[in-house]
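haha ok so turns out i had the wrong file open the whole time. this is the CORRECT one, sorry everyone. sequence first:
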Amino acid sequence: MMSHPAGLPIGPKWIETGTEPVTFPYDGSVVAEAPVGTKELARLAIDEAVAVKAEVAALPSRIRRDILTSAGRALAAHREEFEQLLVAETGKPLVDCKVEVARTLVTLQAAAEEVARLHGETVPLDLLPSGDGLVGFWTRRPIGVVVGIAGFNYPLLLAAHKIAPSIAAGCPVVCKPAPATPLATLWLAHLLREAPVEAGAPEAIVQVVTGDAEVGSTLVTDPRVGAVSFTGSAAVGHQIARDAAPRKTLLELGSNAALVVAADADLAAAADAVLRGGFYASGQACISVQRVIVVDSVAEEFTTLLKTRMKEVVVGDPRDPATRVSALIDGRSTARVLQWVENAVSAGARVIAGGGSESGVIMPTVLADVPDGAPCWDEEVFGPVVCIRTVSTVEDAFAVVNNSRYGLHASVFTRSLETAFRALDVLEVGGVVVNEVPGFRSDTMPYGGVKDSGVGREGPRFAVEELTVTRMAVIRP
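then structure:
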């Protein structure tokens, strides 16, 4: 399936190193042997990136655009193979892997288009007498070497969101995929390295180093790095920000996304949103529905609707197109989620659906009355678990949404424009979604959070801005 050289793409070559098996989370079978990087290889990758930094920054716009469009065409030609590979290494249902590949193609194309939009503006320097006769303008310049670290849940898409804007901005990039899911990232890197060669650009514009936390630390603490872009847990992201300082960090971290059901909501649509938004990718998405906050006048009807439809969430082999929930990435994650559910029940929560596991797969679970302090409510579950709480008014619901250290996306189901715009005003999140799942994300929109959910924005236009710096020109003719 994977038609790329063995080893890790570092500098102009692929360097062979030790390997470890990548296993299929559903049954534990070996998918492939993947190369494992070391801190020495991480340092070498930074060396190689620094060596080509000036050359990459000087690449004409048409070349940077052509690299991204060529790689997009190559990926599209292998679309089904990428989908199957993602199922194999992540264990995500096929339906979610198809979406991931489609979104990756959009991301590559959008990044290619942003190359033509990198520009500056003139500045009226003569607002002060000292500026009389001066010409002022600013341009955007590449920030330098970029380190991109991606999570395991969407390895291809997250790698694309690190790599494609870096190329568009004129920055060489070193990408580190999660240890459990390196395969799709390696193949994507191969496609992106073939395109520069055809265009006369250095292969080291894109490099990949796999490995553990020591490898990651080596990358983010190197003083020659211009920016670090990380997607993963809040705890790791906060540590990266400390380790990388004073270099720029872009952090896309966790959340416990909320969905508010107002008294005037379309309850059938809201229940459908919980089914679609709470269990996709087996719940392993940072903006999947986790906290459902319902105004009490409609809570009983809503809960009944949801409970009745839970049987529609098909559990099974992720290779089956009908499957919506399958095994989590590994046994440790499964054990943690089940323990959190048990803790919530011990603290007084009621099980509306699910609550256990079968053959190592967590059943789609709905809990009611989960109290503050329980990890299922306070933290990011990252599994197929949804928690329902009732409140008296929609204002109370908004207060509950905000009573969290996270703030990535939240959604509100209502027929009222007043309620919708009130949500936009008061919810402390990076994105407010009205009458749709909080997990809605267009890859061209600004995406990111507030509070412990991170800093900076993704989406090619916004990521390119993050990965460039303004350079001011002041000229006396």
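The CA atoms of residues 418 and 424 lie 10 Å apart.
again sry for the mixup
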